[in-house]
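Reagents: none. Just compute today. Shikimate dehydrogenase.
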Amino acid sequence: MTQINHRCAVLGKPIAHSLSPVLHMAAYRALGLDDWLYDRHEVGEADLDAFLHGLDPRWRGLSLTMPLKKTIQPYGTPANIWAQRLKVANTAVFDWSVTNSNGLPAISLYNTDVMGIVLAFGHTLESIGQPERWAGATNAVVIGNGNTAASAVAACTVMLSNDQPNKHITVAARHPGKNPQLPNIVEDEPNISYRELPIGDESLEAMRTADMVISTIPGHAGDAIAEAIGANSAFSPQGILLDVVYDPRPSALLRAWSSQGGLGIGGEEMLLWQAVLQVMLMTEGSVSNDDLMNVLEPPMRRALEEAL
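Predicted 3D structure written out:
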């Protein structure tokens, strides 16, 4: 049996459902990292400190689910713009050459959710032969205003970084205003306005005319929106919908969107691309490849498809 010299894992509670080990282990096999292991550990907020202090220098990084994406903050330093701005990190990378006063190694914190969304859309645009489509984009809608909505709104600001004037991001939610962080993400973005609407006719029209729509609501919470879309014969979506849900697959919302002629992306695409970025961060220094993203994507995609 191969000796394990490098370890990574995903933490959360519950965590048994996580597909992260499937994705990361597929990447390690593709890269020939035979002495690397990635597994899952059930760790809640109250358990995180003890878990971190129980690690040894074999550990290279962690993937974090909510609410640990926030709980990890005092232990590390934001290392990319979205971990810094959103104060949410789904990735922790250890540097054992530096020991902090708390006895832990230096921990760099990253948010790969935002760029995972951007890459999911980008891959789709490449596949349909429209890689420059966002150059003319002016409208985005995010459905939901919970934790995932922050990364979705941030991703919309990235995709709307073009020369168009008068751009808009609309958040459609059952309880508008519940998440005060969301407007703050947009306030420093030039030429992008922000509004929140309740779920209803006005927000459905915003979805129909948007260039990009991201649904961040869990499970079957989008079924009522799906029913409203399916029941409206005049609803002809102009843009692309990403539903972060990948169970059920496809979601009712994606099915309704597609039935009205819209292009939809399943949540497995975001899951894949944020994991690709995590692998690149955690294995830095162990792999030398100028085109690592393209090396990782095919085997990780195959492994994910087989698991789903």
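The first strand starts at residue 6 and ends at 12.
Action item: order primers for follow-up constructs.
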